[in-house]
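Running this now, will post back.
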Amino acid sequence: METITAIIPVRAGSTRLKNKNVAPFAGTNLLVNKINQLKQIEEISRIVVSSDSDMMLAMAKAAGADTHKRAPEYCDEKTKTFGEVVRHIAESVDGDHILWATCTSPLVFPKDYRKAISEYFPALLNGFDSLMSVESFKRYIWNEEGPLNYELGLKHVPSQQLPTLYFVTDGILIAPREKMIEWAYFHGRHPYKFLVDKRTGCDIDDGLDLACARAWLDMDETVSQIDPYMI
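Update: finished.
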């Protein structure tokens, strides 16, 4: 049976929200919250917290996770490229597949991971090389030169008629470990798009994101499943 190792990457430095990875959340903090979520998933063989922070690594051990101590050059966002960091972490753990699970996506619940895993293996058999969680959207998009996905004037269309676009939420990323090492990235060029709603896709980058996640934590889940394009 193939094994899945869940990786929770955290580091001491955070420029936009100090101590972001251990910010209070759901009666504990973001890091321990994520460990507790992943411990509920039988398909996961091992949970590893990778960090340069002794405090966070001690916290992870106390919560029942394994740890990987990262050297400072793999955490300062300057010495090593992001790809080098991903490859280093993947090379430092065992397991057939890696589930990259950021603690700053606290509204990805165990049921979401289970569903993603259940769709991941069939996706590999159908020619996809990995899985990434995405949120779909239909917005009017511009760059410096003008609109990218619609036209002005008589050809303007309502937003629900725009082509569907996706952004990667980074909440769930799964790939074969050896491929993650080869790519120096956590998904390949032909990933299976695992669709999540706005609530599940919440990613904490600043204080406003954290406030939103706290407000959405106990929200009636049916509200988050309403299709905004059908309103």
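The two ends are 45 Å apart (CA to CA). More later if anyone needs it.
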